[in-house]
Design goal:
single chain, 286 residues, mainly alpha, 11 helices
């Protein structure tokens, strides 16, 4: 099947080089997304096993790779891939690459994809900022940057309401992920055989549930920051949310299970990179 897929891609590359190039960039985006979540989950698992001081958010998890051989190359590829994923989100949101339509549910989904694209583009930008910071031997403090951004937002007129709204949005994303874990057909938009549908679906269900579970405390911390008008309440985004899970009764077990689930979400993104149907030609040829 893999040989056939590569042969098919070579034919597309010869017949429609622009379409093939855009599709390759978008698939690289899923690889980068998967790598980010596998990294977050792996470090969270180490934290649950007391092998590292604390769980990390996306930037902290990626920063850990800088010390590895070829770590800078890996970070450069990840940053570029995140831009590719943002581009795919733009195709989905603006050009309806998935043919979702214009009903209210479809528009809500496309709006969510647009926001996701902005988030991943910002993360890609932050990765290249991280590379500059590491080259200059400056320490990047993800939590400090989060507090500074929230402090600036809270200082604006109506800033508390904005922070609360963002927190409620994150809570909604977390709840939505848990709902998708229970109800989604994760192979609906994939071209995969029966033999791998079961494992891919399992990765999707476990991954989306864990991601939703991690987003709930992240959203709650933002809401508290807005209600109390204190940037310190939000701590450091996803990394602090994972730490909050660890502080609960049986927290090490909860964090370990969530960490494994986040790695499953990353592996599901790898499966999407390989098997997801992308109607890029519909957009390019339109």
């Amino acid at each position: 099947m893999t040989t056939h897929a590569f042969a098919s891609y070579r034919r597309t590359l010869r017949a429609h080089p622009l379409t093939a190039a855009i599709e390759l960039v978008c698939r690289a985006g899923y690889v980068a997304r998967g790598f980010v979540y596998v990294s977050i989950g792996f470090i969270a698992l180490l934290a649950a096993l007391d092998r590292t001081p604390k769980a990390q958010g996306p930037m902290g998890a990626l920063e850990a790779w800088a010390a590895w051989p070829l770590g800078f190359v890996l970070l450069w590829l990840t940053g570029a891939g995140l831009y590719g994923f943002a581009a795919w989100r733009a195709l989905q949101a603006l050009f309806d690459a998935d043919h979702q339509g214009t009903g209210w549910k479809a528009l809500a989904s496309r709006a969510g994809q647009a926001i996701s694209g902005v988030v991943y583009a910002s993360l890609g930008l932050s990765v290249f900022g991280l590379l500059d910071a590491l080259e200059d031997l400056r320490e990047v403090d993800d939590q400090a940057k989060t507090r500074e951004s929230l402090a600036a937002a809270l200082a604006m007129p109506g800033g508390e309401l904005v922070v609360i709204a963002v927190g409620l949005f994150v809570l909604g994303v977390g709840t939505g992920n848990i709902w998708q874990a229970a109800t989604n057909d994760f192979c609906r938009r994939m071209s995969c055989g029966r033999g791998i549908r079961g494992p891919v679906t399992l990765l999707g269900r476990v991954g989306y549930f864990a991601r939703g579970l991690a987003f709930l405390p992240a959203g709650g911390l933002l809401v508290l920051a807005g209600l109390n008008a204190r940037a310190g309440e939000a701590q450091g985004g996803l990394g602090a949310a994972l730490d909050a899970l660890e502080r609960q009764p049986f927290g090490e077990w909860i964090l370990a299970i969530t960490a494994i689930g986040l790695m499953a979400f990353g592996l599901f993104a790898f499966a999407e990179a390989r098997y997801r149907r992308m109607r890029v030609d519909d957009v390019v040829d339109a």
